[in-house]
UniProtKB/TrEMBL annotation:
This is Oxidoreductase. Signal peptide: none annotated. It comes from the Archaea. It holds the Pfam family Aldo_ket_red. Residues 16-209 form the NADP-dependent oxidoreductase domain.
C-alpha cells in the first residue's frame, strides 16, 4: 500500500489509516482477525480513542504483538490538565503499551474549548508533559468543526504536528467558508503538519433522530456511509487525491474489507473525475459541520 510522509513527524503512513472504533462492535476473536486483516493489507497507521467503547481493549492484544508495525494515534476529549493527564495514563494502561505515537486533542468544536486547552492548566500542558516523559511522541488535533477554528488552533499551538479533519466531495462542493477544509489542507502542507482525512465515505447526515432511531441505523457510523465497492473506491480515491497524507477508514466493521481493497488499489483520480464527482453530490446535505458530536 502506498505510504506518504505524515507532515514533518518522520512517520511514513499508509494512505489508509485504520479507524479502530470498528473493533468495538466485535468480540475479541473477531477483533484480532480484523487487525490481522488490516495488517495483511500493509496498513501501518491505526487510530483509536477512549470514547470508542472497548476499542482500546480490543486493539490491545494484537497491538502489543505487532507494536513495531503500528503507528498508533489516540485522543482525548478532556480540555483541562487533570483530566487529560488521567486519560493518557488510562489509555496506555488499557492498550497495554508504554508509548502512544500520536496523541490528539479530540473533536475541537468551540473557541472557548481552544482557550481552555491552551491556557495554563489546560490539556495541552498535560500532553506536553507526557511527551517530555516519553509517554507520547507527537501532538495532534482532530475536529469536524469550523475550518477557521482549526486554522486558529494551528496558529496557537506551535508544536502541533498533525490535524485530522473532514474531506469529501460533499464539503469540497460547498462554497461557504464553514466548509473550507481545503484551506486547512493547504495551511498544513505549507507548515509541514500531517493531515488525516475523516468522513471520506459520508453520503450525508443521517435522517433526524425521530425518523431513524440510532439502534435502527444499518451502519455503526456517525453518518450514513456509501456502501458499495464502487462508491467506496471512488470516495477513497477522491480523498487520497486531494493530497491528504492518510485517509481514516469508517467506523463500521462491515465496510472495512471494501475500504482496504480500495486503498490497496489506489492509483490516483484525475481532476476531471474529481470535478464530476463534486458536481454529482453538490446538492447533498453536508455531513459536517454538525452540532451533535460523539
Amino acid at each position: 500500500m502506498e505510504t506518504r510522509a505524515l507532515g514533518d513527524t518522520g512517520q511514513e503512513s499508509t494512505v489508509l489509516t485504520f479507524g479502530s472504533i470498528a473493533l468495538n462492535w466485535l468480540e475479541q476473536e473477531g477483533a484480532n482477525q480484523m487487525v490481522e486483516l488490516v495488517l495483511d493489507h500493509g496498513v501501518n497507521h491505526f487510530d483509536v480513542a477512549p470514547t470508542y467503547g472497548d476499542a482500546e481493549l480490543k486493539l490491545g492484544p494484537k497491538l502489543r504483538q505487532y507494536r513495531e508495525d503500528i503507528f498508533l494515534g489516540c485522543k482525548t476529549q478532556e480540555r483541562e490538565y487533570e483530566g487529560a493527564a488521567r486519560k493518557i495514563d488510562r489509555s496506555l494502561d488499557r492498550l497495554g503499551i508504554d508509548t502512544i505515537d500520536l496523541y490528539q486533542i479530540h473533536g475541537l468544536e468551540y473557541e472557548e474549548e481552544l482557550d481552555t486547552i491552551t491556557a495554563d492548566g489546560g490539556a495541552l500542558d498535560a500532553i506536553r508533559e507526557a511527551k517530555a516523559a516519553g509517554k507520547i511522541d507527537h501532538i495532534g488535533l482532530t475536529s469536524h468543526g469550523d475550518p477557521d477554528l482549526i486554522l486558529d488552533a494551528i496558529d496557537r499551538i506551535d508544536d502541533l504536528e498533525t490535524v485530522m479533519f473532514p474531506l469529501n466531495p460533499v464539503v469540497a462542493g460547498k462554497d461557504d467558508s464553514e466548509y473550507d477544509y481545503e484551506a486547512v489542507l493547504e495551511r498544513c502542507e505549507s507548515e509541514g503538519i500531517g493531515t488525516l482525512g475523516i468522513k471520506a465515505f459520508a453520503k450525508g447526515s443521517w435522517p433526524s433522530t425521530d425518523e431513524l432511531a440510532e439502534a435502527d441505523r444499518p451502519y455503526a457510523n456517525w453518518y450514513e456511509p456509501v456502501d458499495t465497492p464502487e462508491a467506496i473506491r471512488e470516495r477513497f480515491d477522491f480523498a487520497a487525491a486531494q493530497g491528504l497524507d492518510t485517509v481514516v477508514s469508517p467506523g463500521d466493521p462491515k465496510l472495512v474489507k471494501m475500504v482496504l481493497d480500495a486503498a490497496s488499489r489506489f492509483e490516483g483520480m484525475d481532476e476531471a473525475r474529481q470535478r464530476s464527482l463534486i458536481e454529482e453530490v453538490r446538492h447533498d446535505d453536508s455531513p459536517v459541520p454538525e452540532q451533535l458530536h460523539h
